[in-house]
Amino acid sequence: MRTLKFIVKRLVYSVFVLVGLSILIFVIARVMPGHPARMALGARAPEWAVERLREEMHLNEPLYVQYYYWAKGALHGDFGMSLVTRRSVANDIKEFLPASLELALYAGIFMGIIGITLGTISGWYSNTWIDNLVRVISYIGIVTPSFVFAIFFVLIFSYALEIFPTMGRIAPDLIPPPRITGMITLDALITGNFAIFLDALKHLFLPAISLAMGPLAQEARITRSSINDNLKKDYIAAERSCGIPERTIMFKYLLKPSLIPTISIYGLDFASLLGNAFLIELIFNWPGLSRYGMNAMLRKDLNAMTAIILVFGLVFVIVNIIVDIIVEYLDPRIRLGVERGQ
Amino acid sequence: MSKRVKILLISLCIIGILVSLGFAEAAERPLRTTWAWPTYIDPAVGSDFSSSVALVNLYDTLFYPDIKGDPQPHAAESWEVSADGLVCTVHLRQGIKFHDGTELTAEDVKFSMDRLTTIGEGYAYLFAGKVITETPDRYTVVFHLKEPFGPFPITLFRLYIVNKNLVMTNVKKPGPYGDMGDYGKQYLLTHDAGSGPYMLKEFSLEEHLLMVKNPNYWQSIDSYAPDEFKMIGTTEPVTVRTLISRRELEITDQWQSLEALAALDKIEGVDIAGYFPGTEFYYMMHTKKPPTDDIHFRKAMAWAIDYKTVVEKLFPGSIQSRGPVPQTLPGADPRVFQYHRDLDKAILELKQSKYYAQLDKYPVTVHWCAEVPDEEKVALLFMSNMADIGIDVKVVKVPWMSMIEEMATMETSPNIVTIFDSAHYPEAGSLIESRYMSESAATWEQNEWLLDTELDAMIKDSIKTIDRKERFAKYVKIQRYITDLCPTFFLFDQVEKHAYQATYVDWPAARGEVIPVMGYNFAGRFIKVYPDKRAELLK
Lengths: 342, 539
Prior knowledge:
Chain A is mainly α. Chain A has 15 helices and no strands. In chain B, a hairpin with a 5-residue loop joins strand 4 (76-81) and strand 5 (87-92).
């Protein structure tokens, strides 16, 4: 009940955050230089056509009136027309978001499994060659942008070894599964199409691992540092003095509290994956929302820009709430704090 | 056989069956190309390169350009233009079928023209407010022009004929076009309504467009023509290089850097095709603003530019322009005066300029387009060249949209603006009109602010001339007149380069059979793909 109250409270706050975000983005998008209608129709389009589009988009109205029209539509799920794709932004989001979510999901899996495993090993074998190796790998992961990994992986695994496909979500000679969620791997599993599932996984591997490299290095470092801190705590010394096997100490008493900071950062990193995937989506010709959003910004596609940033904001909010719930579950001190009304 | 082995075998069989499911028939002769995205396949919306390629393959036009840019009958069987040049009557070929099997008629042509000019996007600027269409019978279309316009038939290369019935059954109401609702814009965004040699199979908006050969096309298509034509929305060099090396891409986009092209050229079986699509790079000088208002000052600068370095080092493969019209464009004057770097002549001209004694007070401002980074190299070379004769140049990087805004008034236009420009239709008159008529001042196509009534009259007269030979003779006079005024530096005719699989793709444009109309060099039915040669390369 108290957790539910906590979630409701967070959701109410989130509404204010999203409204504030929408106003901010709406204003920034409109004060940027350049005429969106002219950009959409091209330099040679007749002036009357440009003017008609301006009127259709209410661009001749004051900013607050424009926001009113936009907010009215947005409340009904209508974010207006995209100037780039020439169709409703809501449709575009519906089409491109699942591709990005699928990519982020698999990147998130890599991030969690590899990052936490590396961090745990590194922390457990602190100050050994294993730790040093993992730390070096982590540093490389943190300082190298994801697109460099993407290019590197394409050159090795697609160009030289020809193990993985270079682009797209599925092989051209495969018929995509019926669209249920929009995530091909999931749809393939739901419809029982194993061949497509495997092929989609193959297509996902390089973009997902490229995208995950930076954040997984981050998770590894945080996990390592947290394990190191906890290893010095009295309760671990007490457990050791009681003769509890190291394995049990590790998995039963050390890992759970050590993962709390990792989970907090993991949530933020996961939400960031969506927005940061632009170059990855570009390199792998991945039809995702991040690439769509970047194109919208470059072409001053006002409606698309505002809607996409709002979607990314919403994902951040949702992920943060989920992370808070998980952390609350993992850490009794937080749970007790909520119960005491702190 | 043990129970475990049996289970294993059964499992393998199930996996085998599952794996075999879901495969589509692979194309025997795919043609895969990369492009800058997005691509619009609505004939009333698309006009950029990739859109033009898609439209040329999905739709038919009344006329089809040959390699000279002349109109050849296509969906039109014959045509005649009235003596006053105001009426163009086109007789349609009978029996042309749209992809849905219905016959292409005059009503469809009229609908396509009305739709294009009402929507006002894409190639509408060629026709909007200039033409009224009538259909006296099922196979005759009459275009009534408001003014005589000699090149009218060749502008019809851009009138893609849409299936009226199909579009009308998919119109969404209400929409911005009154009774016509959305005029089928939503439908044509992802569907084709054409009769062209290829049909749309799949369009993933942010990813690719896939067309398949039209088995019922009214003209014969070579059996070696690609059975699938895929346009992929990426220009990312690493992706392109990987695809080319794996023989999963036949022709690359034109946006690969010199370094990327050099790397592609090293791959076995891959060649670089270069041709001149009719695009020229200009330095447009403000002829009403000091110091570029002085003709001697302009000529001095024209003599000081190092054209050789520009075409050999900065834009290799391109050629120095000769006058205001690219040399490959029909109607270009091959003998118009051409400047070269000669500092003595530059100084002589400069001495005749009224600004000679006070050069330090009159710096020349050059605005180059921020979206085209290579322009900076030319601007810096220009600055260095002008320093050789004592002219101070200020180089400014300006976003394209800001450039358009500043060129909107004479006061805000800078001394020089850089621009790549090409003809709207394949004839010299197109560029001359859009670049130098007084009407184009205050638009992005003219920073010269010539406002020359004599030149206006000459241009108007030339494009009204129906006889082609006579019209071209007038174009020559105009080109010489403009060159004498020296309002522009005609720097180079741009070369368009594509890497392609020379071993197994026979591409007419790579052989030098270049059609001077954007998009037509990628008409799939004229390109041949040899899968056996590809298979040999893959061994």
